[in-house]
Amino acid sequence: MGGEKPEEYSWPFPPEVPEDYMAHGRKLWYQGIRSYQQYLADENYQYLCGIVDNLSKETTKRSSVHNVISYVEGLRYALIHKDFLILRRHEEPERYLERFRECRLQIGEMLLKEEKESVAEKENEQLDLFQIGMSRTDGQYR
User: Fold this and answer.
1) Where do the domains of the chain lie?
2) How many CB atoms lie within 10 A of CB 72?
3) How far is it, in rounded angstroms, from Cα 142 to Cα 131?
4) Does residue 19 have a pLDDT over 70?
5) Cβ(35)–Cβ(90) under 8 Å?
6) What contacts 24+ positions apart, CB below 8 Å, involve 84-91?
7) pTM of the entire structure?
């Protein structure tokens, strides 16, 4: 157990910094603004925002669309409150832009599947004479 301690043990402690200190804070904040602008301009993000209220509960749940859209709201919050830990996550916006694209594709596949299932259900329904265009006059179909 004995032995000599490494040289690092005698080094002085670094100076204390304020609790809210973040290295390159200004750089992170400006990059956050650029990322936020990119997100708002992204066609996939815009599509998701436009369609989210029209999706079925199942599609909304399975696609996690609310979580994906909330990335942008989270970044907005971080910009307003100068939350540099969140801002650091958005230094490279490409991964979020890719997630918008993936979510849009996933929803598109789900909607296509729902539409095919709906068409199949309608094909299995039995039609009555009124649905195929026959009209009734004087108690008789013509």
Assistant:
1) 23-112
2) 21
3) 13
4) no
5) yes
6) 84/22, 84/25, 84/28, 84/29, 85/22, 87/28, 87/29, 87/31, 87/32, 88/22, 88/28, 90/31, 90/32, 90/35, 90/36, 91/28, 91/31, 91/35
7) 0.69
